[in-house]
Amino acid sequence: MTLTESIKSNPDNCPSASHTPDNNAPVMLVTGSAKRIGAAIIRAAHHAGYRVIIHANNSADQARELAAQLNTLRANSAAVVVTDLAVIDDTSALQDFVNDVLRSFGQLDVLVHNASRFYPTAIGHITHSAWDELMLTNAKAPLLLSQAFLPYLQAANGCIISLLDIHAHNKPFIGYSVYNMAKSAHRTMVHSLALELAPAVRVNGIAPGVNVLPEDQSDQALSDAQQAAIVQSIPMQRIGKPTDIAECALYLARASYITGEVITVDGGRSLTLAGGNVGV
Ligand SMILES: NC(=O)c1ccc[n+]([C@@H]2O[C@H](COP(=O)([O-])OP(=O)(O)OC[C@H]3O[C@@H](n4cnc5c(N)ncnc54)[C@H](OP(=O)(O)O)[C@@H]3O)[C@@H](O)[C@H]2O)c1
Fold this sequence. Notes:
Elements lengths: L2 E3 L21 E4 L5 H12 L3 E6 L3 H14 L4 E5 L8 H15 L4 E4 L14 H28 L3 E5 L13 H21 L4 E7 L15 H10 L8 H13 L7 E4 L3 H4 L8
Parallel strand pairs: 2-3, 2-5, 3-4, 5-6, 6-7, 7-8
Antiparallel strand pairs: 1-4
Helix pairs in contact: 1-7, 4-5
NADP nicotinamide-adenine-dinucleotide phosphate binds next to α1.
């Protein structure tokens, strides 16, 4: 089941809106965008004048808070849609999700596949549920959501932007074979759909390096020594920032002659990376 909460402001809940709504502004949906990189893309797009749709699953409260902030800046400019992307496995639930998104602003110009799960699956310990979840969030949902939203993207001459990973290509993480395979499939989707959907819809990807560390509470959290080793491995000598990715997403959203491209945003890390453990 999906639950749409269009937190479109009105004079009562948005007394300080400083700009009038722009009903001609393009609309961007970013999956998994209540926090971290997704939220940075939402903020950057909103700042650039887009109307934005924040999608969340467990982080619905953070999504609502973000939408409220953005609607305070500009009335009727941010909406929230809450759903588990597992809806793609149920035709009618998927249609509900599409309807919820379209109900927000009546159009969709940019679809950003950002939602993801990331955890190890050491060989010998790979479960069906890990396979299903990692493949669903990192590969199957991007493809089936692209298909479901295609008529609207075509009508808008819009574009799709996929969040990939420098490890989705030729520098796989050891012990993460399912994640590596899923992101690799997603990368192939970018190239396949770029061919199939041109000229109406452009399809591009962004391959981050290390842009936001796993949260401290997460079982993927990195030690100080691992973090220092990562910084050492990055020619730009710093962990990337979510805004580095957001700027690239905005560029791709506007780059009308670029399709089938994957831009690496990793401070040069992939130039030095041997492939291997997450922390080095
Ligand atoms: N962080 C990095 O440095 C880095 C490096 C390489 C690639 N990337 C890629 O860049 C993108 C963003 O990275 P990130 O670290 O900001 O992502 P993240 O925090 O790991 O995940 C983003 C969001 O995905 C959503 N999500 C996960 N499973 C879902 C499901 N079944 N249904 C709906 N939503 C689901 C979660 O939403 P809720 O919280 O609402 O549940 C989560 O907040 C990802 O695609 C990631 O693979 C990131």
